[in-house]
Design brief:
The protein is an alpha/beta fold and 337 residues long. 32% of the residues lie in helices and 23% in strands.
Length: 337
Amino acid sequence: MKKIINTAERFVPEMLEGIYAAHPKELAFVNGDLHCLVNARTHAGKVGLATGGGSGHLPLFLGFVGEGMLDGCAIGDVFQSPSAEQMLAVTKHIDQGKGVLYIYGNYNGDIFNFDSAAEMADFEESIRVESCVAGEDVAGPAAAPGEANKRRGVAGIYFVFKCAGAAASAGLDLDGVKRVADKVCKNVRTMGVALSSCTVPRVGRPSFDIGADEMEIGMGIHGEPGVRRGKLQPADEIVDEMLAPVINDIPYAAGDEVAVLINGLGATPLEELYVMFRRVNETLVAKGIKVFHAYVGEFATSMEMAGASISLLKLDDELKTFLSATADTPFFKQFAL
């Protein structure tokens, strides 16, 4: 294992110490716990937005705490959920009397701990909490009518943070912000591809084995199994295989508008991500689908895993307005589109 760390045990707290030292005017922690990160700038009367999840995915999750986006984040160890008590501490700090919306990925540990935190916030603090669980990975099957969504939450959750954050900043109440967040979840889909494994510091060895000439379509951001493993293909063929199920799952039609997110998983050069976007754009144009805005970069990584994901968000006028709004966090900045 080659990593620039001191010890595996101190990796996450020392990373957090570095983040707070680098951004003292933008980020703070509460309850004496480095893992309870909040926006250092508060806004009275606004619905609070909180997220949380394991480390190892920067800039997800904590990187989207800031102006126009999230208000707080509970941070776990690498690929591990934070505790309900940490989520509660964040919730108490960011509540401005208008309630709090939790936005997090569709993973069992996060669901259990966020639900527990919401119950404690209600019973102990009289804080109303609503939840939006993102699960847009089309590598998993769509839920049958009446069944719970079992798809993983991956990079597309960025769009939920962005639009819900803009809705809260615009003054919508808790029900309104949740409606916007749920609308984004309904209209975003993602597919990923992995070319290599990553190494969790406490484990000290790769999470899985994959050949030097292999790729795996649909692998999750923790190394969860994908839909197909095979020989590495040219970029256009990879994109075509990833994009087809994303488009077909909504589905899309000529005249639709979309936002595109090409997300690097940690060890893929930005140049390669733009090669991927080139093919995505060609395909969408050929289908008569208009790209309203494109995001290319690292939004949800998996330590040093090589690979990428493609997310599409189907837009209407409301979502375009919220997606276009200004945002300013230490890890993400956007001027009004």
